[in-house]
Amino acid sequence: MTLSITFLGHSGFVLSDGTHTVALDPFLTGNPVAQHKPADIHCQWIALTHGHGDHLGDSAAIARANRATVLANYEICEFLGSQGCQTDPGNTGGQIKTDFGFVAFTPAFHSSSVEGRYLGQPGGLIVNMGGLTFYHCGDTAIFSDMKLIGEIYRPDIAAIPIGDRYTMGPDLASRAADMIRPRWAIPIHYKTFPGLAQSAAGFKPSIATVKELQPGETWQAS
Ligand code: NI
Ligand code: MN
Fold it and tell me: Measured in angstroms, how far is the CA atom of residue 92 from the centroid of ligand 1?
């Protein structure tokens, strides 16, 4: 019942149960707060919330270097497949069983494209690994079905965007955490760039414990 959670900065993570490793939204090149380089990432899977550059990031290079399988929506898998990546597509509402547990695709209210190419509906990810369930909300507005997602998957940990402008800000992200009801809430998508909230001070869920991770930091959740 242990999950190693490394925060890559912005919205990126590496999750590992000691045997299996999945990278989420590994945006490193061009990420001013990143402590890792793409070559530092060793994983068997990459899971993606949507196709914007600050989430797709270095996925193609990391997937090819590791022969990792990309778990993402159909359009992103088509796109990365055409760049020589191994893929295993899904889409919103579905779940893919994996060697470590499962990855499920949840809705998000946002957009998704790269250089004008439509990359499907944006989403969030549920990753079940190491006996724990991790909900990466992706980039999104607040929406009331977050309560339903919380009831269905009972996430232990939720990574919630708080940066405002492109996603929820700290106030709405706090309300989102109260709907999802995880044990821990990790603030993401802030401080990376000017124009985003520069601190997590306003992120104050009433139930979840806030776990603020610094870029490059690893937390053993159990
Ligand atoms: Ni985005
Ligand atoms: Mn983003």
Answer: 16
